[in-house]
């Protein structure tokens, strides 16, 4: 018997028409409009994004991204109020300046810009062997950004100071270390050959301008590591705890690298004890992002107590459970994984 799939139940043309009429939209509103479950709507939207028919934001509202069509980018400004407090400050600064030089910004603004991927676009500027990062307002054209960057870089160019009102001639240049008698003989020789053999340059005065060397810059789009984006949901305090723990725990560092590779976002983070952490994560899937309760345990062998704790905490949070560990599951617990703890997904890293 033929089973209907979500492709049969969702009219993608209707979704595109809805996005065209409303602009950036949450999956829940799309689901309501087409009269289907949010999972089917999310799957259809993900399919449209994969086919370059729609776009998706990094910005999350209640854990869900916005979907929109190409050309609707200016409308994303309407959702800037959903940025975190520090990001709103960086947003306002970027709107005002249009281009910002990364190394001259406060650390909190630099981090915020890396999180605002919808509004702040990084550019790499190469000057010889040096590379610098600049941030441009997402609606600013690349050519306009290049002009602004060149204008900023002129501040750093050392302009040679003009020489005082003293004519510089070949005669003066050649007699710097000669005695009076030699100078007199040189002048007499010059009188014989007259001025036709020498073209004297114009004096360089204080009003003369020495042309400033134009910095040769190469501006290119820059893709930053995904690390900063995966921390968008954390408070400043949680980020501090996470960074401190990561610096001391090699296993946590491996877990974070795994999250970056899989584009898993950390929404909350808590350190329980050494090498033991709890967090809420957002896991990408073909039908949209799914929240998980994740327990990170850096130990060689897992025991029944570990599984019980993860199971209970996931139930309290009303979320599916994910256990990330560096250890193994003893054979005597394998049977329980298929019975009492069948809802726990275990990943060994």
What is the total tally of β strands? Answer: 11
| N- to C-terminal distance | 41 Å
- Unreliable stretches covering 5 or more consecutive residues: 1-6, 155-180, 190-198
**Distinct helical segment count:** 13
Structural class: alpha+beta
Amount of beta strand = 15-25%
Helix fraction?
Answer: 25-40%
Q: How are helices and strands ordered from N to C? A: HHHHEEHEHEEHHHEHHEEEHEHE
Tell me the Rg in angstroms. 32 Å
Mean pLDDT: 78
Overall number of domains: 3
- Which overall shape is indicated by the principal axes computed on the Cα atoms? globular
Q: How many strands, which pairing sense, and closed or not: the largest β-sheet?
A: 5 strands, mixed
Strands across the major sheet, in which order? 7-8-9-10-11
Element layout with pairings:
Blueprint: H1 6-9, H2 12-22, H3 27-34, H4 38-50, E1 55-61, E2 64-68, H5 85-97, E3 99-101, H6 107-115, E4 120-127, E5 130-137, H7 142-153, H8 170-174, H9 180-193, E6 218-221, H10 236-248, H11 250-262, E7 265-273, E8 276-283, E9 290-297, H12 304-317, E10 321-325, H13 331-337, E11 344-348
Parallel strand pairs: 9-10, 10-11
Antiparallel strand pairs: 1-2, 3-5, 4-5, 4-6, 7-8, 8-9
Helix pairs in contact: 3-4, 5-6, 10-11
What does this structure look like?
- The chain has 349 residues and is of the alpha+beta class.
- The protein folds into three domains: 67 residues, Winged helix-like DNA-binding domain superfamily/Winged helix DNA-binding domain (Arc Repressor Mutant, subunit A, Orthogonal Bundle); 83 residues, Arc Repressor Mutant, subunit A (Orthogonal Bundle), CATH 1.10.10; 120 residues.
- It is built from 13 helices and eleven strands.
- The strands form three sheets. Strands 7-8-9-10-11 form a five-stranded mixed sheet, with helices on both faces. A four-stranded antiparallel sheet has the order 3-5-4-6, sandwiched between helices.
- A hairpin with a 2-residue loop joins strand 1 and strand 2.
- Helix 3 packs across helix 4, helix 5 crosses helix 6 and helix 10 packs across helix 11.
- The longest helix has 14 residues.
- It is globular.
- The N terminus is likely disordered.
């Amino acid at each position: 018997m033929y089973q209907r799939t979500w492709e049969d139940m969702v009219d993608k043309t209707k979704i595109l028409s809805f996005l065209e009429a409303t602009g950036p939209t949450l999956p829940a509103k799309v689901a309501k409009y087409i009269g289907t479950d949010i999972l089917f709507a999310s799957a259809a939207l993900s399919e449209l994004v994969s086919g370059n028919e729609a776009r998706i934001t990094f910005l999350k509202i209640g854990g869900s991204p916005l979907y929109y069509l190409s050309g609707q980018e200016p409308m994303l400004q309407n959702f800037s109020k959903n940025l975190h407090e520090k990001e709103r400050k960086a947003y306002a600064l970027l709107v005002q300046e249009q281009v910002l030089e990364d190394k001259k910004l406060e650390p909190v603004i630099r981090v915020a810009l890396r999180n605002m991927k919808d509004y702040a676009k990084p550019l790499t500027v190469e000057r010889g062997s040096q590379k610098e990062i600049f941030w441009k307002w997402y609606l600013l054209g690349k050519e306009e950004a290049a002009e602004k960057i060149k204008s900023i870089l002129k501040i750093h160019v050392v302009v040679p100071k003009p020489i005082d009102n003293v004519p510089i001639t070949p005669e003066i240049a050649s007699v710097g270390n000669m005695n009076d008698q030699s100078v007199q003989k040189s002048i007499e020789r010059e009188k014989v050959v007259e001025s036709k053999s020498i073209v004297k340059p114009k004096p360089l005065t204080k009003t003369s301008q020495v042309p400033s060397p134009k910095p040769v810059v190469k501006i290119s789009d820059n893709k930053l590591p995904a690390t900063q984006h995966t921390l968008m949901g954390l408070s400043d305090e949680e980020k501090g705890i996470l960074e401190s723990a990561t610096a001391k725990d090699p296993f946590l560092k491996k877990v974070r690298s795994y999250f970056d590779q899989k584009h898993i976002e950390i929404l909350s983070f808590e350190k329980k004890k050494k090498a033991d952490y709890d967090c809420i994560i957002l896991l990408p899937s073909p039908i949209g992002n799914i929240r998980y309760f994740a327990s990170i345990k850096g130990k060689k062998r897992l025991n029944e107590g570990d599984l019980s704790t993860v199971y209970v905490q996931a139930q309290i949070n009303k979320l599916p459970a994910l256990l990330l560990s560096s250890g193994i599951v003893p054979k005597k617990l394998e049977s329980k994984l298929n019975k009492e703890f069948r809802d726990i997904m275990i990943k060994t890293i």
